[in-house]
Amino acid sequence: MLKSIWELFNKEDLFECYQCARCTGSCPAAMVMKCYGPRETLLRCLNLGQEAVINDERVWYCTTCHVCEDRCPQEINISELLTAIFNLAAQRGNLPEKIKFGVDLIAKTGRSLIVNEKVLKDRQKLSLPPLDPLNIDEIEGILKKTGLNDAIELS
Ligand code: SF4
Ligand code: SF4
To answer: Model confidence over 33-85: pLDDT tens digits?
Structure first.
């Protein structure tokens, strides 16, 4: 069991940040959600500690696209920090409703989006091939192995 995000991310790396904000300026999530930014997340980690970010639903706007670390002049692995935050939050069952809903949907259907009649008709209109059936047992096995099943039950 993970006890601290510092088991997955080297805390010393936070001190390399000189708050240039290039990461936030490049972040696609920050472009649409003004309340979110990787620079701000990093700063909160430094100033307030891990509990402040683990309990902050804003971090879940991150899509782990890695653009922030590609653009960081200090080569700080910011998405690794966010992944550490997600891991500890999930282990504690601290998942926002939208994430829980998504994982639940994957567990039940194997897909992260609802596939209804409209979606199927739209696919036909676009001449897309029919969707292949998914192996739910295999997906259930993955969710169990990663502990995501437990995280959903805890939330
Ligand atoms: S780009 Fe790097 S150095 Fe600049 S604010 Fe972001 S993390 Fe800090
Ligand atoms: S990894 Fe997350 S924080 Fe970094 S640019 Fe992508 S969405 Fe933004």
So the answer is: 999 999 999 999 999 999 999 999 999 999 999 999 999 999 999 999 999 99
Between the CA of 30 and the centroid of ligand 2 the distance, in Å, is 8
DSSP label at residue 128: P
For residue 46, give the nearest of 88, 18, 83 by alpha carbon. 18
Q: How far is the CA of 69 from the centre of ligand 2 (A)?
A: 8
Say which CATH number the domain at 52 has.
Answer: 1.10.1060.10
In-domain check, residue 1: no
Kindly give the number of the ligand 2 atom that is closest to the alpha carbon of 64. 1
Split into its structural domains, the chain has a count of 2
Per-residue pLDDT tens over the stretch 7-19: 999 999 999 999 9
Boundary-marking domain end, from 91, 121, 139: 91
Last residue of a domain, one of 67, 91, 115: 91
43 alpha carbon – ligand 1 mean position (Å): 10
Taking CA atoms only, the protein residue closest to ligand 2 atom 2 is 62
**Ligand 1 pocket member 18 (CB < 6 A):** yes
